[in-house]
Amino acid sequence: MSSKPPDFIPIAAPDIDEDEEKAVLRVLRSGRLAQGPEVAALEEEFAQAQGSVFAIAVASGTAALHVALHVSGIGPGDEVLVPTFTFAASANAVLAVGARPVFVDIGNDFLLDLEDAESKLTGLTKGIMPVDLYGLMPDMDRMRAFASDHGLALIEDAAQAHLARRGSWRSGTAGIGAFSLYATKNMMSGEGGIVTMSDEQTARDAALFRNHGMETRYRHVSWGLNYRLSDLAAAIGRVQLEKLPNATARRRSIAGRFDAELPSFFTRAHVPADAYHVYHQYTVRVPAGVRDDTVDQFHSRGIGVDVYYPTPVHLQPSFGGADGQCPTAEQFSREVLSLPVHPKVTEDQVGRIIAAATAIASNLA
Predict the structure, then answer these.
(1) Where are the domains of the chain?
(2) DSSP per-residue string spanning 84-100
(3) What is the DSSP code string of 257-293?
(4) pLDDT digits (tens, 9 = 90+) for 102-148
(5) E-strand spans in the chain?
């Protein structure tokens, strides 16, 4: 196996320093490792940062989606509208509650297309799950109106969108939000997730579901699962949350240079003026016939670009969809690639990426 060169620029690199180390050591020395005061503090601090009334920490982003669907009343026989251009966790969580994901195409912004969603409504549709892909929220006023008009629960998959905004809405506040704290996310705890909501009863239901339905020790008032986040993970998450505003500003600064300096061979999605994009990924499109060559040429220059996502979820073997069901997503899956945009990318490395992109465009255009 060939090793990466010392100057390789990875697509993701968690920003971990002595602050996270001290936080973990503090919890280890406390003797309280499972869900406890660190989790409670993370929930309070995250809710304040996101502008949410309540936040419930759970074991993963997928668990956050499962909890959000469960407390929304989605269950067996129901259908949920889900964009096909995303990670499979969005659809898998729908299956976890016994419902059926109905795959929806995307627009040129990579986000769920409401016109296609409307064409796929049935009498069984009970929810819609927009995904804030790459860190960009959809128009939540339109999304809320669509959900209200059709009597649907609104579950926002905000796994990639910590601190994102669109118009008057912050991520995770327009309905029930589900965030991920996976190791490569904009803020992380190694593994973890957070569910956000504005209703006290919904928060109570979520807290019960993540802890086997236990209201008090060994008193189970409802069924549930072990989706608890550990205090070890929460302590890391709290440090990461403190760093998040500066880390997000750095992502946006790098993205600004890419916007200004990448050659036109790389097609960027339009970012609306009312959006605060947090750039979990900086994703561009190139002609489908040269996408893989483009990726290879970046790699040969020590730049770790990657493809998110090479196969729409409806075409995954586990879902068995057909070609042509979501044509824009199918086309874009052959064209997209993402450039390193994480806060550890230096200005010199940004220059390297832009220079490589310029040379590659000259070779392949």
Answers:
(1) 18-238, 243-364
(2) SSS-THHHHHHHHTT-E
(3) HHHHHS-TTSEEPP--TTEE---SSEEEE--GGGHHH
(4) 999 999 999 999 999 999 999 999 999 999 999 999 999 999 999 99
(5) 54-58, 79-83, 100-104, 125-128, 153-157, 165-166, 169-170, 176-180, 193-197, 214-216, 219-220, 267-268, 275-276, 282-285, 336-339
Task: Assess contact for 131 and 171: CB atoms under 8 A.
Answer: no
Pairwise CA distance, residues 43 & 37, whole Å:
10
pLDDT digits (tens, 9 = 90+) for 179-215: 999 999 999 999 999 999 999 999 999 999 999 999 9
pTM score > 0.85 for this model? yes
Neighbour tally for 308: CB within 10 Å: 19
Q: What is the CATH number of domain 18-238?
A: 3.40.640.10
Average pLDDT, the chain: 97
For 221-346, where are the alpha helices, taking DSSP H only? 231-261, 291-300, 327-332
CATH number of 243-364: 3.90.1150.10
Rg (CA), the chain: 21
Q: Is the peptide bond before 309 cis (omega within 30 degrees of 0)?
A: yes
Q: What is the pLDDT of residues 276-307, one digit of tens each?
A: 999 999 999 999 999 999 999 999 999 999 99
95: its two tokens: 């299956």
Which one, of 169, 145, 146, lies nearest residue 158 by Cα? 169
Alpha-carbon span 286 to 206, nearest angstrom: 42
Q: How far is residue 41 from each of residues 37, 44, 54, 102, 291, measured CA to CA in Å?
A: 6, 5, 12, 37, 45
Distance of CA 144 to the CA centre of its chain: 19
Amino acid (one-letter) located at 19: D
